[in-house]
Design goal:
The protein is an all-alpha fold. It contains 18 helices and no strands. The protein is globular.
Amino acid sequence: MLQWAAQTQIRTCSRSFGVATTTTAQQQQHRHHQLSRRWQQARKQRTQAQVDESGEWNEIFQKAHDSNTGGVPDDAPSMVAAVVDTEGVLQQLNSLKSKLDAAVAQEDYTTAQQLKQMADALKQQLPPVQQYMLAQVAKLGSSNPADRRAAVSALGEVGDASCLPELASCLHERDLNTAACDAMWAVFHRHPNPAVNRLMDQGLGLLQPGSPLVKFRAALEAFDEACKLEPSFAEAHNKRATVLFLMHRYEESIEVCELVLQLNPHHFGAANGMGMCHLQLENHTAALAAFERALAINPAMEPIQTYVAALKAKLADDGLGRPEGL
């Protein structure tokens, strides 16, 4: 059984690291714009009176939307300040949420109501796309399954790293796992810097099964450049790990996978890929730990469940204990 797993791991590499399951960054940007425009139209219909009075809503939305996709207008210094403040507002919202949860747990509903009002006021300071994203996160708590599926899909269209914890929790629900997995890959690949997106598309275009070594080297160079431009962009590093695996540079790939998981603890693809590298090196205990780490994030990955069962049987047959802490 373990031999079968070892023989099939290279064929499943692209899927595990997230190559075969993704669209290009340009396609993701296009989908992002489409959904944002649909939401803009709905919002305009609901608030047409205010729009007619001010005549500024479209301009505000466009500047806010551009700021979320890397295109802050040159003539909008106030919007630059708003972009900088967005992170601070989100931090305040997280703090208020913790206090609100504590107040509800203590049945202090007066304080809870005050905190909710403060949070609602803060949300109004965010760009429209960010407000929409937070609304979708809130819908994940709905008792209506259709609403929850729609929210997961919407977060795949416009979500950013801040919504990954909520999407990751959906991976543990059978009815939402596939949609949440797709949404998370979309978020993993989303970056506001067009130069990074171009490099990612360039590398992905070269990263195909059966590609010659020269193309792998060219893909690695593209992902290296993306990492230099945005060192905190986890998916650029993850694609480096993918290429290193395909080039049989397993130790290096493992190191990069560890970095990916430091940058993005929800990246089940990196944990999975790390396990495959260890398996290729016949580091069975380390491979088992990595695969179990991947399943702890995304429990529905059936091939990895097979690897785990095979590795456990192998270690039991060999009489090998697992080091403490693994």
